[in-house]
Specification:
This protein has about 220 residues and is of the alpha/beta class. The protein has one domain (about 5-215): 3-Layer(aba) Sandwich (Rossmann fold), CATH 3.40.50. About 30% of the residues lie in helices and about 15% in strands. The chain contains seven helices and six strands. It has helices at about 20-25, 45-55, 70-80, 100-105, 110-115, 120-125, 190-200, and strands at about 5-10, 30-35, 60-70, 90-95, 135-140, 175-180. Helix 3 (about 70-80) links the parallel strand 3 and strand 4.
Length: about 220
């Protein structure tokens, strides 16, 4: 029986940026579909509506979500607007669910505000999304402090060069881990991919477990 993973990219990215992670998920037996959206021209809420249309067209008994950075905020808006009863799990990779200090700095000045465009809503600038336990959700945060986010100024450790670990902490999350990777390399790291697959299969991080969701306990 099919298990589909919907991959959702972050700010300034496209669906093609997740190609390495997608390869590893497919090798693990998952069917992957990319949700591409315009992160600068549309708000997270507008993109969440488009995500709803995208997901509604998928005919599968299990739909997982793996989201990088801003993609996690789009997904939280989607679940807030369209709670789903379809089975599946969620993994967020470096998503600033508590707001982004880098985004707040960029939004203050006319000459840098264009870099985040319509993504500069309360969701990215500091609101606290509520996770109502629609599904099991795992958070992976990076701790290798190298990245373009540092061009905006100093960030409190630990961080991944763009997003601080504290910005990724979501109340109600099922599990949370940090790995020594940068914000961008969350998409390319073999360790991140392994832990993502582990969570999709088992609902927790740790040693890889071989059972697919349909062979384990319902979520």
């Amino acid at each position: 029986m099919r298990e589909v993973v919907v991959l959702i990219h972050g700010l300034w990215k496209t669906g093609n940026d997740s190609w390495r992670l997608r390869q590893r998920l497919q090798k693990a037996g998952y069917e992957c579909q990319k949700f591409s959206y315009q992160s600068l021209r549309h708000s997270p809420e507008e993109n969440a509506r488009r995500l709803h249309q995208f997901v509604s067209a998928i005919d599968a008994p299990v739909i997982h979500f793996v989201c990088h950075s801003l993609g996690g905020i789009v997904l939280l808006k989607y679940f807030d607007m369209h709670p789903s009863l379809i089975r599946g799990r969620v993994v967020l990779l470096g998503s600033p669910v508590n707001g982004s200090q880098v985004a707040r700095r960029l939004s203050k000045h006319w000459y840098s505000r264009w870099l985040i465009g319509k993504s500069a809503t309360d969701d990215l600038l500091g609101s606290h999304p509520v996770w109502n336990s629609w599904r099991e959700i795992g958070i992976i945060a990076g701790t290798l402090p190298l990245g373009v986010g540092l061009l905006s100024g100093w960030l409190p450790l630990p961080h991944d060069g763009t997003v601080t670990v504290s910005e990724t902490v979501l109340h109600g999350a099922t599990d949370f881990i940090t790995l020594p990777v940068t914000h961008t390399s969350l998409l390319y790291s073999s360790k991140v991919a392994q832990q993502t697959i582990t969570f999709l299969r088992a609902g927790k991080f740790g040693d890889e477990i071989g059972n697919m969701l349909l062979e384990s306990e319902p979520t």
